[in-house]
Amino acid sequence: MATTQHADVPAHMLHDPPRSDSGPRISQGMLAMLLFIGSEVMLFASLFAAYFFVRFNIADNVWPPYAPNGEQYHLPKLLTGINTAFLVASSFTVWWAEHRLKHGDYKGLRRGLGVTILLGLTFLLIQINEYVHLEFTPQTQAFGSTFYVLTGAHGFHVFAGLTLLIISYLRVRRGDFSPEWSTPLQAASAYWHFVDVVWVLLFVLVYLV
Description:
By secondary structure, this protein is an all-alpha fold. Helices cover 69% and strands 0% of the residues. It has one domain (33-208): Cytochrome c oxidase, subunit III, four-helix bundle (Four Helix Bundle (Hemerythrin (Met), subunit A), Up-down Bundle).
């Protein structure tokens, strides 16, 4: 018997590959995002490798190094820790948004995405504020260069993730997603979780260790 197509299901849901009797298949869009995230893992692995090469092979025993005035540079661990909590919380809110969609709660979906976007914007603003008040610049020895490259690359990825979430939010307002189809939202959520995991590692390895 042929499957009946619901009137409220967007036509572009047909773009996902059909499901077989052996179990659900991953959509092409989600597979593309996972492959992209895999390439991003290699990018950040190389950046972390460069950071630790500089720290343990080029820099002096003291890390962060000393400034010209004889005082050691310091990183704002407390403020960055609070900022990290905001970003980690955003992973839970975007997960909650997807969970509400599965139950057909579009109001909860919009709220979850809205809070996630606000938390992401807060993270970026605090990070920019940190850059403004740091005592060193990207030109400050290898320490400054590796720090700004690593945190700056992550900040760019947060901005990219926010762009995906904002697009998803606009599509939610337009009614593009349903409990049966939400591949772009799932892809944006997966990317956001990746960005959050990278930052937790960065915070621990660069700010705390």
